[in-house]
Structures are given as structure tokens and as C-alpha cells.
Amino acid sequence: MSYITAIGTANPPHRFSQQTIARFMEKTMNLNTTESRKLHTIFRASGIEYRYTVLEDYGKDDSFTFYPNTPGQEPFPSTEKRLRAFREHALGVSVAAVKDLKTSISPSAFQAQEITHLIVVCCTGMYAPGLDIELVQELGLPSTIQRTSITFMGCYAAFNGLKVADAFCKADKNAKVLIVCTELCSLHFQREATDDNLLANALFADGSAAILVEAKPTMRSLKIEAFHSDLAPEGKQDMAWSIGDLGFEMKLSTYVPDIIRKGIRNLTNLLLQRANANGNGIRHFAIHPGGKKILEAIQQELGISEEQNIHAYTVLKNFGNMSSPTVLFVLNEVFKKLSIANQDERILSFAFGPGLTLESMLLKIEIQDA
What we know:
2 domains; 370 residues; alpha+beta; Peroxisomal Thiolase, Chain A, domain 1; 36% helix
């Protein structure tokens, strides 16, 4: 068996409103009147009020520290420069997420030398020796710890980290697995005024989530009951992530919510079959807020109310889409509010990404009396 026993989250220091970011992008993208109107429409409809970033430039009109202070902002930051910035900032926000995790449990529940596995999830930066080794050194984890890196899978990658942790725990009754999902999406801002860029620039932000998975339950645990994943190949070209000369380039079309809508019911039914369960015990939802329209499409198809899905909207509103950590931010919102009264209830969770990949997970709440 495997159990989620603690979750922590963190963001970089710079927090800006959507309006502030929109002004920066309107100027930097050198938009005409029609394009500006489209950008502001997308930003207003996003369901996002604030986003976090490692770059202070998004709150400035001039005197930039990352983007050029030159006519036409040339040369625009290369992929090399963006990855240097990732290396500079990723460790700090990752460590902050782990520290936040530790505050949610007793000191004895997280002993660095007892962590048996470290899984690092990321699609917005890479280097070697990497973030995993830096975390081992910064957190005082054993040098012999088993390390796994899950890279370039996008917004659903936290599920892959949890699947690997689940396998480790089932193979070792003493396993304690630390997963750290860190994304600095704001480093990859693209200034060409394509529809894909306008949509991506309105959604993505920076953040980190840490999650502890153990082979044994604690006083407050979420038992991992089942996973199920599927592909919707017709969406292969509608959500994609590639490396360009000027950063990582996101393709994100407006057709994604409809593709997810078509596959979500079958995904849910097959997940419940795997868990030998029905939907009666599902009282909570942790859905990756890839965008407001995605949340609305899932609600309509599964008959979920906005109130039942409120945690996804809360994360979207206050943080935007941070790629892989985002669904863990939502799960943490659910986890924090649970009590003994929720014993044996279930949490249904979804995330989505390139492929088009549909991921699902079923969790059972196990809370003991203090």
C-alpha cells in the first residue's frame, strides 16, 4: 500500500495581478489594436487574478533585469539564458515547498536521513548535476538515496511521480518517498502574437509542490487506491511543448476543453473499475485547473457543481496554471480541510497534458482520532 501523508507548496516572491502582467505583455509583444483587444479578452476570461514569477520584470514598465532594455528588446532572451535563470531560482522555491510540507506534520515525521527515495518532476528547466542532487545536498538527504527525475511531461507529470512513488512503496514496506514538482513557466514567455502564445501567456506561472508518500499510514493519510491514464490522439497537435531557440514553446489550442470533455467520463469509469469501486463515496475533487473552460467542461460532463470543484477555482484564481505542481496545490487545499468526519470518503483527481494525455487518480481518506 502507499499513502500520501503530507503536502507543501511554495511560490517565488514576485506576485502580480493579471492586469499588471497584461500591460507588460501588451507592450513587449508590440501588439496592434486588434491583438491588444484579444489579449485583454483572454486575460479577463482566464479566471486568474494573480500569478507568481521569479522575474520582477513582469511588474515593470522599464529598467528590466532579465529582458533587454533595447529598442525592440533585442536580443530577446535565448534558451541558454532562460535555463541559466532556471538554475538560479529553482532550488530556492523547491526547498521552500519542502519546508512548508514539514510545517504540516510533526518534526519526527520528516527525518531527512529516513527519506529513501527522491523524485523530482520538471518540464521547464534542465541541467546536470541537476535539481535532484542540489536538493539532496540542501535538505541533508542521504547521499545513497534513490533518485528519479521525471522530465518534459507537462501538467500531468505529478501523477507520474505519484505512480513511481506508489511502486516504490509497494516494493518496500519502509519506503518514504519525497516528490518535488517545480516549474518556472514564466521564463518561457513568447512575444509573437499567435493565438497559442496569447493563450499560454495568459495562463502559466511559477510554483513548487512537495509531497510525501509512505508505505505506512499516519494519523492523516490519503490512501492511493488506483490510477488510470489514457490518450486522446486527436488532441496531439492541440497541446504540445517543444524547445526553441528563444525558450520552450507551448502549443495550446482552444479545442483542448472539448477533447477533454469527450474522454473524461470513460476515464472516470475505468478508474473506478480498477479500484473495484463505484462513485458513491466520492465527495471531493482535485482537478488540475489547466484553464477555466477545462474545469467547466469536466463539470458539465460529470455533473459536478462549481462548489464541489471550488478548490480548483481557488488555485486558478490565486496562482494560475503552474504546470505539474498545480494539481498538488489543489489536492493540498482539499487535504487541509479534512477531518475525522471525512473518514473513508474518496477524492477524485485529474490532470492533463501533451499527448493529449488524460490522467486520473482515486484516493481514500484515512484520518485517525488524535
